[in-house]
Structures are given as structure tokens and as C-alpha cells.
């Protein structure tokens, strides 16, 4: 083991197996050298975690064991798993929420693993094969209940990656509408995870036939779903939508039916989302970037990511902000991330929380706390 040089980034490599997790901490500049190595044997319960949860657990274990290194240096995690995109999602549930909050303290950066230099990492890297543009498999299904409807999404990727997404609808919907909501959520999830080639499988013959051009879309409300799904398909290099029997779509079907029961105490999925209105009716607000306070923060983050030096005041200002997709988010204390709003968007949110159907005409301090609990900044 060696002492790290000050002012240089530390690289973290993660190794995941069925029964253990391993972490290598090294520094590539000014000269490549190994800093530390830690591993941990998984308990019986942890061995049944999903692959992405094991990756997050390995990183969490490293941050606890190597806390002085994480606090004194910029840490760059080199991994082929989309763990960064998952930890930055605002609708996480279960154990991943606490992990995301704890890891957000260090301002960790994530980068593709790439090639590994050094003989001391040859055996370690052999356990994590490189991935290319593999096809991701997406299973979607919608379900109707007496009071609440829902949809289930199961996304399978390379290296044993598996993610489950549960949607709960708080509005009246038809069976075909629920199937389209599941398709939209699945495509958005695959896009957020960085998938380029997707095979989407569903047991709805109507959705498959309309998306493949075999059936004509006659209903007006389904036509809006069709156009939105078609626009999402353009974000991928290749998307295949296939029909499968219901028994082959059992996992997504089970997730969709969980929404008809209790909302607490039974969900073990990573992502849980509640839709108060159909996806095609969500309000979109356009803002002027020149008058948006977020534009300056975005520019400072861009300069920091490109390697330009910032003054101490600017570095301290952007330390709690990050860009996820097209959204600017701020790290919160009671939630992993808070979505930053422009002036017009903030006015709309305040009107909804203060005067809307769920508003209680609260005072300023109570309204501010309610906005933070809703996930906005």
C-alpha cells in the first residue's frame, strides 16, 4: 500500500461476486500506485440482493472503511454498471434511499471503467468483463384494480443487471391505457440507464400491433400515447417490441398487481413511482434560459467537469449541485436529490401546494417545508 499524492484524483474499482464484494483504491497520477484494498463477505440476506444493489453496497462499504480518503480527495468510481444513474433517481425506495443519502456527502464522480493498467489489478479486473452495446431486455405489463391501477417494469441488462420499477396510478384508466403507461415508463427507464438497443416484451397484442404498424390507432386518447412512445423510440439505436404470452411475463405482471394492495411494507423494488395524472397530460413549462438562475450553475458545473479551475467561492457554490439528464438537482438533507425549479415552475408548484386540491393555505415556512418534502428546490 502507498500514500496518495495530494491534489490528484483517486480511482475506485469495484468487484462483485455471488458471495463477496471487493474494492480497489488507486491513484494513476503522477505515477500509478495502489492505495488500499478492502473486501467484504456478504451475509445470507445480502447474497440475494440484485446486482446493482451489490454494486451500491460495495461502494458504501468502501466509503465507510476509507472515509478519510473520500473526504480528502476527489473520488472517481470506474464501473460499467449504471449505479450512478440509479442512486441519483428521486423516486428510490427501500434501502437504496439511505445509501444514496449517505454517498451524496462525498461528491463522487462516476466514469466508464475502460482499460485497467497494472499487473496488480489483472486478476481483479478479470471478474468484471467489459461490456459493449449489448441488447437490454424490457418486460412491461399494466393491471387494473378496483380502486388503484398500476404497471410493472422489469429491465434486464448486461453483467446480471436487473431493475424493477413499480408505477401506481391515482387516476381512472383503461386496460390499454395502463399497458401504454407501462411501455412509456419502461422506455424512459431504459433510456435513463444508457441502453441503446432494447427488446421490449409485453403481453398486450394491441400495443405491439400499434407500435409495429400492424394495427391502426383509432382512439384519440391512445393516439397521444402512441405518439409519445414513438418519440421515445427515436432516442435508441434499435428497439424491438415483441408479444409474449402472459405466463412468460409473470414478473412484470406481479409488480403491476402489487399496486392494488397496501402501499407500505410490501415493496422490495428499487423504484416506486406514483402518477397522479396520465403521462400524456403532464404540464410542460418553458422558461427563458437567459433569465434562469440555473444557467450560471450549469455553466460552472460544465467548466468544472471540463477541468477548468474555479475560484473557491464558485467551487463552494456548485458543490451541492449536479446535472442529471436535462435537470439540475441539489443534494438535500432528508432526500437524495431535490429538483431545481425556475421562477415560473416554482410559482406553479407553490400555487398547487397552496391553492390546489391538496393545498391547506399554509404559511410561508410551512409551504417551504412542504415543497422540500415534495422533492423540489
Automatic annotation (TrEMBL):
One of its GO terms (molecular function) is RNA-DNA hybrid ribonuclease activity. Pfam families: RT_RNaseH, RVT_3. The keyword Hydrolase applies. It comes from the Eukaryota. Residues 132-261 form the RNase H type-1 domain. InterPro entries: DNA/RNA_pol_sf, RNaseH-like_sf, RNaseH_domain, RNaseH_sf, RT_RNaseH. Keywords: Endonuclease, Hydrolase, Nuclease, Nucleotidyltransferase, RNA-directed DNA polymerase, Transferase. This is Uncharacterized protein LOC106766176.
Amino acid at each position: 500500500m502507498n500514500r496518495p499524492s495530494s491534489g490528484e484524483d483517486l480511482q475506485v474499482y469495484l468487484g462483485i461476486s455471488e458471495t463477496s464484494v471487493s474494492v480497489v483504491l488507486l491513484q494513476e497520477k503522477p505515477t500509478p500506485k495502489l492505495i488500499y484494498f478492502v473486501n467484504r463477505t456478504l451475509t445470507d440476506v445480502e447474497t440475494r440482493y440484485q446486482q446493482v444493489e451489490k454494486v451500491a453496497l460495495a461502494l458504501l462499504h468502501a466509503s465507510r472503511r476509507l472515509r478519510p480518503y473520500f473526504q480528502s480527495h476527489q473520488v472517481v468510481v470506474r464501473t460499467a454498471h449504471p449505479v450512478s444513474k440509479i442512486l441519483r433517481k428521486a423516486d428510490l425506495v427501500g434501502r437504496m434511499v439511505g445509501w444514496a443519502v449517505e454517498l451524496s456527502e462525498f461528491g463522487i464522480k462516476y466514469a466508464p471503467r475502460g482499460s485497467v493498467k497494472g499487473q496488480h489489478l489483472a486478476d481483479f479486473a478479470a471478474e468484471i468483463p467489459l461490456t459493449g452495446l449489448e441488447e437490454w431486455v424490457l418486460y412491461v405489463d399494466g393491471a387494473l384494480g378496483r380502486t388503484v391501477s398500476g404497471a410493472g417494469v422489469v429491465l434486464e441488462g448486461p453483467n446480471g443487471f436487473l431493475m424493477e420499477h413499480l408505477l401506481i396510478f391515482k387516476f381512472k384508466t383503461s386496460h390499454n391505457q395502463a399497458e401504454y403507461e407501462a411501455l412509456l415508463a419502461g422506455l424512459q427507464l431504459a433510456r435513463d440507464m444508457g441502453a441503446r438497443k432494447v427488446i421490449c416484451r409485453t403481453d398486450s397484442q394491441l400495443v405491439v400491433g400499434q407500435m409495429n404498424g400492424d394495427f391502426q390507432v383509432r382512439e384519440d386518447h391512445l393516439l397521444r400515447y402512441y405518439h409519445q412512445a414513438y418519440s421515445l423510440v427515436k432516442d435508441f439505436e434499435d428497439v424491438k417490441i415483441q408479444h409474449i404470452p402472459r405466463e412468460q411475463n409473470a414478473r412484470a405482471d406481479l409488480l403491476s398487481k402489487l399496486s392494488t394492495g397496501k402501499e407500505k411494507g410490501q415493496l422490495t423494488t428499487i423504484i416506486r413511482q406514483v402518477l397522479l395524472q396520465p403521462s400524456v397530460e403532464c404540464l410542460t413549462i418553458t422558461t427563458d434560459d437567459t433569465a434562469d438562475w440555473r444557467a450560471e450553475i450549469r455553466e460552472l458545473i460544465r467548466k468544472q467537469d471540463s477541468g477548468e479551475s474555479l475560484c473557491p467561492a464558485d467551487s463552494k457554490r456548485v458543490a451541492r449541485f449536479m446535472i442529471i439528464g436535462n435537470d439540475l438537482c441539489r443534494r438535500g438533507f432528508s432526500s437524495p436529490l431535490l429538483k431545481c425549479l425556475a421562477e415560473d415552475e416554482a410559482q406553479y408548484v407553490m400555487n398547487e401546494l397552496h391553492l390546489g386540491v391538496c393545498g391547506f393555505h399554509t404559511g410561508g415556512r410551512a409551504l417551504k417545508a412542504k415543497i422540500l418534502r415534495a422533492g423540489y428546490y
